[in-house]
Amino acid sequence: MTDSQYEERLEKLKSLPQRYATPKETFYAAPRKSWVIQQRWDMPEAFVIKVAPVGAFIMKEDNPNQKYNTKELRKEIEASLEAGACAFHTHVRDERGGHTLDAKLYHEVIDPIKEKYGKKVLVCGCPEGGATLADSLRPVLEFKGIMETAPVTVSAVNLAGEYSRCTTVDIIRPSVELIQDIGCKPEIVLHNLGDISMVKRWLVDTGVLKKPYYFRLAVGNPGWGYIEDPYTLLECVSYMTRELRKIAPDCAIMLDMAGRAGLFLVPLAIVLGLIGARVGMEDSIYMYPHKDEMIKDNTSLVRHAVAVVEALGRKVGTADDYRKFLREGGRK
């Protein structure tokens, strides 16, 4: 079209005046009190980052960068703490890479780190993987006063049919009771939507779990919910967060870097006002959901998490911030 044709079209539009409820002179480029007075979102300023360098499942055959021996794990954890993490959770492996609850190996990882960092680091226990419940809980008793939190998974775990483990109320309640009795905070782990019902029936309604409640959402791996795209990720995590806050508005919730979503879980946790995120190679192989880039080390994950936290205006939390969440809950 030519310039004259555009002018003709504009001429015809002169018969359609804009409608203003207020004088046009005060509609544009004028102070907007209603825009200034907007309610702040209810979320904590601090956002804690916990690193989990190795778990019970992922092998070097899955990710060649996976660390096994205690010296490597200790190095990964210390580098992650220097990068901004304030807490760590670790399993230990034997010389063949098999999962073990060998107290000697735990001491090789934990003791030097605790001696170096003292109260600046929070140690999360690992009461799982034993042949009996007593075997599983022994590491928490071994490190009584050192391990400040300990996960208790309410899910019946089924990893795509390759591995399955049943969970019953007869296992969960004694675990929570013993962990609380020694002054440790149970970290209730949920893998699926239905786990919320079990938490409420087994632990909340019975009064077994002491307030403020502390939950970790670990969804995304095969069998841990069904998350195949951004929509199901957002819906699943927001749904679980909302339902847990219905049970206890002041509960503390942490999101786990699990499955294909990788680091995308960190900004989601920030936006939802959660207390923090657990990152690391325990539950993830890939950095990002849209790339086949494998995680090279745990420290890089912590650095990425720190950058996102700071970019979105929250403060990278300290171990004392973490302890405050455990004492007071996750909402202001």
CATH-defined topology: TIM Barrel
Query: What would you call the structural class?
Result: alpha/beta
Name of the CATH first level? Alpha Beta
> CATH homologous superfamily - what is it?
Aldolase class I
The parts where pLDDT drops under 50 for at least 5 residues are none
| Count of DSSP-assigned helices | 12
Count of strand segments: 13
Sheet with the most strands: spatial strand order: 1-2-5-6-9-10-11-12
Write the CATH architecture name: Alpha-Beta Barrel
Q: What is the percentage of strand-forming residues? A: 5-15%
Radius of gyration: 24 Å
* Number of individual domains: 1
The profile of the biggest β sheet is: 8 strands, parallel, barrel
**Which range best describes the helical content: under 10%, 10-25%, 25-40%, 40-55%, 55-70% or over 70%?**
25-40%
The helix/strand series, from N terminus to C terminus, equals HHHEHEEEHEHEEEHEHEHEHEHEH
What is the overall shape? elongated
- Overall mean pLDDT stands at 92
Calculate the terminal CA-CA distance, rounded to whole Å: 59 Å
